[in-house]
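Why should sequence recovery work at all? Because a backbone constrains its sequence more than one might expect. Tight turns favour small or flexible residues, buried strands favour hydrophobic ones, and helices have their own preferences. The token representation captures these environments compactly. In the example below, the structure is given first.
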């Protein structure tokens, strides 16, 4: 290679590794969700659903932050792909002009329903997250000077919203604590969830949100915790749970069509996390995974009976595990989910468009 070639290569590498510098593709990114994307909001709560201790964060530059992962969550990686030079701060610590880049409102154990996750202690339900967002909007109005400027600004931001997992895991399929499982069929339950979800999403719209990425629920019946409890061979996913998740996801995708038809000034998309997940566990070697049915850190059958304990030693080969603990994907799995949400690799990954195009509309 000539000298010029070397210089070009170096420039290419520099450009790639500092690709996050400069203007992001959208001015701000607001995040709503549960432990899959919580980045510290639960640290201040009296809750069993906390991850502000090692080995959580073992592969994250700042160590344990409250993320339920060894490293980055999907929204951390999506923020990088959108060109942000830093992660979006949690609502609990974002102050002043920080909020103009967006805020992460997610809270572990939270659901669409108010009571979801209550056996774990404090949490901020989706309606609580929407209230916190409304409070943030009034601060944005104060910073930018008036409501029209704020509305124009917020209309360019991406809003990613992923709730529902806990409404199954820590509600519908937890008969010792909740009676929804006997009150509703899976179809009826999906309908009540979607109805409540619709109202809260409409509230976000009323407060300026225009670019929505609605993340479907994953295949909860394939989590190490469900495999440990309800799978005979510890490998076959729990069909009863996955089928309830699929009913919810189908309704959510249909809701995207409804919202797009009713609101010509907004764009809603659906992210098929379930499908991306199924693909990872059915073709693990494509992605460098060797273990799909056990957590890297955990206790008991499938490392899934008890979740990763404080100061427990996790597995060494974390890139080879789809799951970090009994419930949560590893950074390696989050990277695949985030990349395919941002830039679809299969037509079924994102509907009707992916996040990269949502940023451009
Ligand atoms: C869309 O509009 C139809 C007809 O007015 C209405 O029945 C439906 O509830 C609306 N859905 C949403 C999500 O706005």
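From this structural description, the recovered sequence reads:
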């Amino acid at each position: 290679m000539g000298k010029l070639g070397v210089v070009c290569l170096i420039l290419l590498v520099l450009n790639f590794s500092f690709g996050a510098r400069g203007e992001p593709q959208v001015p701000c990114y607001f995040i709503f969700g549960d432990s899959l994307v919580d980045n510290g909001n639960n640290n201040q709560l009296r809750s069993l659903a906390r991850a502000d201790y090692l080995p959580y964060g073992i592969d994250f530059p700042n160590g344990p932050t409250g993320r339920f992962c060894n490293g980055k969550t999907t929204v951390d990686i999506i923020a990088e792909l959108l060109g942000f030079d830093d992660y979006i701060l949690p609502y609990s610590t974002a102050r002043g002009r920080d909020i103009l880049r967006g805020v992460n409102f997610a809270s572990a154990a939270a659901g669409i329903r108010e009571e979801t996750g209550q056996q774990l202690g404090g949490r901020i339900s989706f309606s609580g997250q929407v209230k916190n967002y409304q409070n943030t909007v009034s601060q944005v109005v104060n910073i930018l000077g008036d409501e029209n400027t704020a509305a124009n600004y917020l209309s360019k931001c991406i809003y990613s919203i992923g709730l529902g997992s806990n409404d199954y895991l820590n509600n519908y399929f937890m008969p010792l604590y909740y009676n929804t499982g006997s009150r509703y069929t899976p179809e009826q339950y999906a309908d009540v969830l979607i109805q409540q979800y619709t109202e809260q999403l409409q509230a976000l719209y009323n407060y300026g949100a225009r670019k929505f990425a609605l993340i479907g629920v994953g295949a909860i019946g394939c989590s190490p915790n469900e495999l440990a409890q309800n799978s005979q061979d510890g490998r076959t996913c729990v069909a009863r749970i996955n089928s309830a998740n699929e009913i919810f996801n189908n309704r959510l995708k249909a809701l995207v069509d409804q919202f797009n038809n009713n609101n010509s000034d907004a764009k809603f998309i659906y992210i098929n996390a379930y499908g991306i997940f199924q693909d990872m566990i059915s073709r693990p070697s494509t992605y460098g995974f060797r273990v799909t049915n056990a957590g890297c850190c955990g206790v008991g059958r499938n490392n899934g009976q008890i979740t990763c304990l404080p100061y427990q030693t996790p597995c060494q080969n974390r890139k080879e595990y789809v799951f970090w603990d009994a419930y949560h994907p590893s950074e390696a799995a989050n990277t695949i989910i985030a990349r395919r949400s941002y830039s679809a690799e299969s037509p079924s990954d994102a509907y009707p468009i992916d996040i990269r195009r949502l940023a451009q509309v």
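A few observations help interpret the result. The pocket of 2-acetamido-2-deoxy-beta-D-glucopyranose is lined by residues 198, 255, 258-259, 262 (CB under 6 Å).
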